[in-house]
From TrEMBL:
SUPFAM superfamilies: OMPA-like. It comes from the Bacteria. It comes from Marixanthomonas ophiurae. Residues 1-19 form the signal peptide. The keyword Signal applies. This is PorT family protein. Residues 18-161 form the Outer membrane protein beta-barrel domain. InterPro entries: Beta-barrel_OMP_2, OMP/PagP_B-barrel. Keywords: Signal.
């Protein structure tokens, strides 16, 4: 997994040296996350923050990779599942206008925290979550003046969240809507 992420970032770095519009910046936003195929779960609202690098490869096409800390998981009646990841989405961007784009690509995530927290404050660490998460990403972006950008994305999990079968939610996958605001330095 680490080799794949490194190779993807190296490819983007090499590509951006040939690109006409290098893009480097920071972004932050809000996640509305849950787990699929599990009854009784509601959205967990969390934050997402990190950096991005990308390039516009002509008038209509671009590519972007992010390095993000992302709070995900779900809430249930007695508490919440806190699943925090370091995610690396790599999206192709098709520009419908010079400012508006649609995005799609893969996302690779590494779990950095998994715990269940009950409403009475009890915390259960290491709840048996897969260490790696692979998702698909679709979204839209809008570049506004002064280097600002707005993005909305949906991340749909392709790997099961629990590492063992037999759990009540053993086929559950991450499902995350993200709204973010970014600032490009270039």
């Amino acid at each position: 997994m680490k080799k794949l992420i490194f190779a993807a970032l190296a490819l983007i770095t090499i590509t951006t040296t040939q690109a006409q519009g290098l893009d480097l910046g920071i972004k932050a936003g809000v996640n509305f996350a849950t787990l699929t195929d599990a009854s009784g779960l509601d959205n967990r609202t969390g934050f997402v923050a990190g950096a991005f690098v990308g390039a516009k490869l002509g008038d209509k096409f671009g590519i972007q990779a992010d390095l993000l800390y992302s709070q995900q998981g779900a809430e249930f009646d007695a508490g919440e599942f806190n699943l925090d990841y370091v995610n690396v989405p790599i999206v192709a961007k098709i520009y419908l206008t010079d400012k508006f784009n649609i995005q799609a690509g893969p996302q690779f995530g590494v779990l950095v925290n998994d715990e269940a927290q009950t409403v009475i404050g009890e915390v259960i660490n290491d709840i048996g979550t897969n260490e790696f998460d692979i998702s698909g990403v679709v979204g839209v972006g809008f570049d506004v003046p002064l280097g600002l950008r707005l993005e909305g994305r949906y991340n749909f999990g392709l790997t099961d969240v629990p590492e063992e079968s037999g759990a009540d939610f053993n086929k559950s996958k991450n499902s995350v809507f993200t709204l973010s605001l970014g600032y490009s330095f270039l």
